[in-house]
Amino acid sequence: MRICVVNPFFHPYDGGIERRMRKIGKRLSDHYDIHIVTSQLKGTERHESVDGMEVHRLPSRYIRIYNPPMVFSEGIREEIREVSPDLIHFHYRWAPGYTRAVASFLEEVPVVFTWHNSFGEGSGWVRPLSLLNDELFKHYFAKKCDRIICVSDYVKRQVSNRGVPEEILKVIYNGIDLGKPSRKEEDFILYVGRLVQTKGLDVLAEAMKEVDEKLLVCGKGPCSSEFKSMENVKLLGFVSENKKNELLRKCKFLVLPSKKESFGIVLLEAMAVGKPVVASHVGGIPEVVEDAGLLVPPNNSKELSGTLNTLISDDELRSELGEKAWNRAKLFSWDKIASQVKEVYENVLSEQG
Hints:
The protein has twelve helices and 16 strands. Helix 1 packs across helix 12 and helix 6 crosses helix 10 (301-313). The radius of gyration is 21 Å and the shape is globular. It has two domains: 2-175 and 333-351, Rossmann fold (3-Layer(aba) Sandwich), CATH 3.40.50; 188-332, Glycogen Phosphorylase B (Rossmann fold, 3-Layer(aba) Sandwich), CATH 3.40.50.2000. Strand 1 (2-6), helix 1 (16-28) and strand 2 form a beta-alpha-beta unit. It has an eight-stranded mixed beta sheet, with helices on both faces. It is an alpha/beta fold.
């Protein structure tokens, strides 16, 4: 059985979508002949094998006005046709060329789509464009798919409330590679993620004025200016995967004060090494954390600073939540997630007769 997974980006680009594709694809390559159709990033081969998957990279150009950039690839439909798939699994809503190419197969090949982010995600000038994009995507593409995988119940409710039939929606969470719980602690708390408005960094900066602890900030983006001249905040910029994991193992806890969040994969990354988390009670975050961390109302710097100070000062509470976090992370193993995706494929294919 041949599966064609389509997304404008793939390894070595290492975003959340691309990591999910690779983790699941690696596990399912023992069961299916998996082909990835994607853009050709600088320095990559046109064709290569990655973790048992055949990768087809297309000549592309990029417009870097946002992260990830807009992408325009050549010959998408033709490459999918050459793969001759029994099922197509698509992952991306913001590259019209890719959407049109996959849509052209809707009447002849079963199509599964994974909805990774909030409906109309974004803020400022991006928000109205994102809403328009998602409305068009929903109407002309999503409703016609055989199945839509949602990364949280929150995303499923959003998509269902927008008129996508509930019977084609299936929740399959993001996964994690479970590490050994870390007992190390150094004197800092940690933020990891893009430095954009939806992550609540203005709220975090205000809260840190009342917190006597060092905050290390990993990531890049326009909101780095929120922390300007703050002595207890250190901006590390982009860090490697190894460095990120090292910091997660050494921090007292992770903080994610998002204003919107469909899932929050970095929360799982911290929980998987036994670190507690402080996060906003928004979107899919409560589904991930449950009682393994402390949740605060979004956009409330006073509540956030109080919660940060509570966890900083209480060694026993950090230890208790860290143990709960590690046990909670066990439920999100990539083996379980891949098995659930395989079940979706089998169900969709069986429906074709």
